[in-house]
């Protein structure tokens, strides 16, 4: 509304000017803004009775530029009593309307038009900003008296005139003076920009390359299906281009810059626009070799120029023709682009002391110069704006005016021998602009993306239309134009514009149609579309989860079962990281869910009746304990859980509950005692022999009963004789464990609901002495004190090579009766209706998919796995599909990235019968594409709910349009009336509006049934049948909650614990014999297993964790569950050997246990007992591998104690060609890598290079050794690589070469470069080292 902060204002109080000379006045007070005027009008409003005006009034309406306007006056100020406020106001503006207006408001004396005050401004009027003017137009008091060189008052006789001068300016781009609030580049221009990541020159160049569609298509043609974005520059650029093409929001370049290896602003500062352009062109020229895009860079950007020296007096010329990718043109001394080209080819005369020495002619006068032999279709011209200032010893920017045209003919700059059969007329396509000086640079680019289209300005995240003047004149540089010269305060000093062209892009007119040909869907790789759509779907899912998070409340439930095993303070440890966190039951529930529904759901989860359950709210007491405070009243049945949370636990983000379960009713009516008459306390028993607490549940007591009265009850709970002497303590808080007086009442002992009583046997002096001698705590207070000396130790399985993959098929889904696709439950070993696989973590997804496809007798391309993930509402649904680019990822990586449990993965296996369109088997999901849903049908006659199938539906499609498809899936007649529901959560079933769109997400479940008549409903009711889907879901019971033993767990152990005590605690957790456990320390930096801890050690836990460098590193111990006693095992060494068959890909793991005194020959003897050889005369060898390369081959006499723990051992039959090799044959190592020799994988092996053998024959032997088909082996490149140091591989291309003649050194070996999916998947286990 107020222009004071955003527009120019000016006071003009000249007695020589006359307001009524309106045209002259307008030209005087309205400066030239350089914009074309569409309409101009002025309007005068005579205001009378000023002192009695209302606070806000408007003048008469007048029309300018096809819109009505009026003057808006606040005679006594707008929120300011000291000034007059005057504005220009648009009348009833509509949404989407705008008008660009230059305005002046003049307040003047009606009797003397030379007495006036004026202000001017310009503004874009919209429905959101309908008026503009001056809140502090003038001091109110000064208007009524002559002042400030005025001879008369402005307001006389309580009246004055206000004149509005209004110029409506043309807005050819539609964005003149736009504030860009809620501006959408995609909607307004069809293009999007980049998010600013400091290197704005990169954004400008990428936009230019993107708009060169021939280049974009060529980049798309480079194979990247199995690349990783963060490691592949090509894939990262493909993604950027595709996102620029399809995204509605500015595009991120993080992955692209990370693929360059740029991770800081310093990295960006090391490059400039020209350097970055050359790096990109060189890189993609290499990447395009051997692909469909081969030669595209040369075709687009490469021209030829000749450098020559030509003698004047003799017939001699020396010349050299070179390629160029861009041309650097001088700005200094040149006024136009044509001047620069003339300067570039200007000849230099070599004479006098600078004569040229011509071969055979001696010193000669000569002409030296450069001439162009050809210009490329896309011409990049670098303007040399930056120069070295010798006097000041620094780089300075030249901001001189430099003009360039929309069209230029360059034929005159070609040599006489150049091909001039095609025109050399070039059209301006892009202007890359540098703004400011050397120290504060900003780049943007002006581009004309279509041949006959508009020009646009791409300035980071904003794209706007521009006119030719903004492309040319505004970027020529030079002095500021004579617009608003009053702003330039430095008198006598010329100010040059620091925003000017830095690089120009021209396209040859005859090539424009080819270079700028429109993109079609076939130009974009299918895998790229699927990849980006998947990522967008993931982002949408995350966004949806974030948006839904506030709808849910986290509820944590402690049960008697969880309390029983808790070792620590309170009933459980919810969030104190100093101690192991308790594994309580955690639920995400809707805040709107009623207490009745919540109680009903939980009771069914535990397979008990709702009336047997009562929930106690746990609160934080002032002494920092967390205890049950009060039960949730049954009167809260219809109260939402959010309201209960606010009323009963207002200060806690989560709701913590204790679930009390009654076995039987008290008097046939009630299940629980009334609270005012009784107190509920919790019991813990301390066993000094086990050094452990045991939670014994809760007990109701009377306030006035004596403490000693409950000792018999306590003895009964532990099955002690009734009169066993006991010691009772109250757990008041962590540092306060007080003994209770048995003859005091509970009221006298200040016992309240939720208090904890701990007890133990009263020990004899002898028993106390025995515990003390053994280093055990013998009483409850001391045991509690030991908690403060505890450390949390994380125990992990040492040989954790596998992850569990649970696969759900369509058949499983069809048989399932219940929620979700199947019931996963918490079962440890097997799940009904689910295929359970133990997969090597290092196995790639491609290998896993290949194995499963073989098992189900389908091709791998027919299978698509969907990751199943837990949602916030505790359902487990398909989340995203695993596409082709996951093929090279290990199953461990996928587990970690896709699932909260790093060793578990739940998958739905989708099988396609036939391709959709040639080579695409599955629809693209995500964004506005299809979504995957599942169908269930409820049959009230059979009282069954069965899974029918999965479907792809359009997110925007209406449900009623799919009714006949639903009917078809259940063989119902077309147009059968249906009732359709969405299974939102385990107990949330919502009927769907048939007229609404799906608006679901991947993995949602739709249930349907016939729409029954009232007669049919009554029939089912009479028969005792459930007749609708919501009732049927209510009747379902979930699986019984079982405790799943996790392989990784935390224990709180005292720092002074001995080895045996640690083993005892771990054994108790794992429910096994402690003598069959072995522990290994973790490496302090890598976290990997390092050194086995001897069972005979006398170190304490604290001493075990101490190292030379770190006093207490991360408290991690690896454990092994042994088949034999640790005492026996420590006399032996455990060795795992992988036995290789005749082909390198065949392997079998053999576990051996030998005395520590054994040698390698004993290992080979044991291996021979476990394998079958084709001949007893075959020779066996053992070799060790580290980092996928052979480190040594054993001769047999080495003690096994010298075999390092971190290596992998392989055993094989020594090949016959090695045994029978002659003196000229050479045995070398062969190993596998992918693209780069440092990216090693697979099983290395030894191989004989036969004397005089061609590479073609060697390849045949290699192929047989690997057990590969000719087709698969043809994908592998063979190279000579050094085995230790890094160097570029020397690829062997010619099949006729004799490899033995290469004279390979002892430091060289053969490398097999697996460059594509086939080479990775078909080798199967040769890909990743299973050890």
TrEMBL record:
InterPro entries assigned: MATH/TRAF_dom, Papain-like_cys_pep_sf, Peptidase_C19, Peptidase_C19_UCH, TRAF-like, USP, USP7_ICP0-binding_dom, USP_C
Occurrences of domain MATH (ranges): 40-166
Catalyzed reaction equations: Thiol-dependent hydrolysis of ester, thioester, amide, peptide and isopeptide bonds formed by the C-terminal Gly of ubiquitin (a 76-residue protein attached to proteins as an intracellular targeting signal)
UniProt EC number: 3.4.19.12
One Pfam assignment: UCH
GO molecular-function terms, A-Z: cysteine-type deubiquitinase activity
Record flagged with keyword Protease: yes
Entry similarity comment: Belongs to the peptidase C19 family.
Protein name: ubiquitinyl hydrolase 1
Source organism of this protein record: Rhizophagus clarus
Lineage of producing organism: Eukaryota, Fungi, Fungi incertae sedis, Mucoromycota, Glomeromycotina
